[in-house]
Design brief:
Elements lengths: L1 H6 L3 H4 L13 H17 L14 E6 L5 H12 L3 E6 L11 H9 L5 E6 L4 H8 L3 E7 L5 H14 L7 E5 L6 H12 L3 E5 L15 E3 L2 H4 L5 E4 L15 H8 L3 H5 L6 E3 L12 H4 L6 H20 L4
Parallel strand pairs: 1-2, 1-3, 3-4, 5-6, 5-8, 6-7, 8-9
Helix pairs in contact: 3-7, 3-13, 4-13, 7-8, 7-13
Bound molecules: phosphoric acid mono(formamide)ester.
Phosphoric acid mono(formamide)ester (CP) binds next to helix 4.
């Protein structure tokens, strides 16, 4: 722990927040602080395998009102790797079904002497609402289509490990931008750190209004592909759509799926990313998802490191 403490000696000067609710409100220095802490935790825990005791005596509650594989389990593992206890809440099977309000449920969980609540909910702004109503730390595990801050951070950490200088990199987010919380967190995080972001997908799923924020919008993947250093391939979120945004999945795949033919026209060292879950054959073909340019599973491992960093920083902050 003494080495770790030395690694982080400069961090509390930058990090003052008790909550992590989004990336839009963070400064470049704050984002870099989390990324540096995540890298230090990854190194100190042998790639997130071994345990530390820096959060011994603390308790984390996972409050998930939507399904999750990666986010929920990696928050849980991150807490355990740091010596904290965890409480696992799922809305199905809970007293929400008996009419208890969302805030009452959260306050009852907090009353079990919980120090941090991780919240995933379909309604945008839910983490901000909890932060106003609870005394403990609140960390967003995504709120509907709004933001998924730790996903944005783990994506940027994965890019930074391979390409340390983000300024000057071109990162394309491809697919269902309209409904993607991952897209929003990547947009804020990457642009604050100096990367160029291109949003690419069908016109029904990519608004030109992003150009007002200095973001490039493109509707033809083949046109932008030779310029891209990183492609982050986003899932089409049919469950959030009221009407079909394109005639068929087959047509979408023809225009936007990353496949062997497109890989041949991409940069030699292009990074292929996806936040998961992936739909093989829709946004990415199996040979590309499992190929040498793919860092999809490294993203998942880095999710534990980022979540360790976020827990450690927020639970040690004095705002
Ligand atoms: N990327 C992501 O949020 O995955 P889960 O839905 O499995 O948590």
């Amino acid at each position: 722990m003494s080495t770790l403490a030395a690694d982080f000696a400069h961090l509390p000067a930058v990090w003052k927040r008790r909550h992590l609710l989004d990336l839009e409100s963070l400064s470049a220095d704050e984002i870099t602080c989390i990324l540096d802490a995540a890298a230090a935790f990854k190194a100190a825990t042998n790639d997130c395998r071994t345990k530390l005791s820096v959060l011994s005596g603390k308790t984390l509650a996972n409050l998930f009102f939507e399904n999750s594989t990666r986010t929920r389990n990696s928050f849980s593992l991150a807490a355990k790797r740091l010596g904290a206890d965890t409480v696992e809440f799922s809305s199905s099977g809970s007293s929400v079904a008996k009419g208890e309000t969302f805030i009452d449920t959260a306050k009852n969980i907090e009353a079990m002497n919980v120090d941090a609540v991780v919240i995933r909910h379909r309604t945008p702004g839910t983490p901000h609402l909890l932060a106003k109503n609870l005394r403990c730390t609140v960390i967003s595990a995504s709120d509907g289509p709004h933001e998924h801050p730790t996903q944005g951070l783990l994506d940027i950490m994965t890019i930074r490990e391979r390409r340390p200088n983000l300024a000057g990199l071109t990162v394309a987010l491809v697919g269902d931008i309209a409904h993607s919380r991952t897209a929003r967190s990547n947009i804020w995080g990457l642009t604050k750190l100096g990367a160029k972001v291109i949003l690419c997908g069908p016109a029904t799923l990519v608004s030109r209004r992003w150009e007002e924020f200095g973001i490039e919008v493109a509707y033809n993947l083949d046109d932008i592909l030779p310029r891209c250093d990183v492609l982050n391939l986003l899932r089409i979120q049919f469950e959030r759509q009221h009407t079909r945004p394109f005639p068929s999945v087959r047509e979408y795949a023809l225009l936007y799926a990353m496949n062997r033919e497109r890989m041949a026209r991409a940069k030699d060292n292009i990074l292929i990313m996806a936040p998961g879950p992936i739909n093989r054959g829709v946004e990415i073909t199996p040979d590309v998802a499992d190929g040498p340019h793919s860092v999809i599973l490294e993203q998942v491992t880095n999710g534990i490191a980022v979540r360790m960093a976020v827990l450690w920083l927020t639970l040690n902050a004095n705002d």
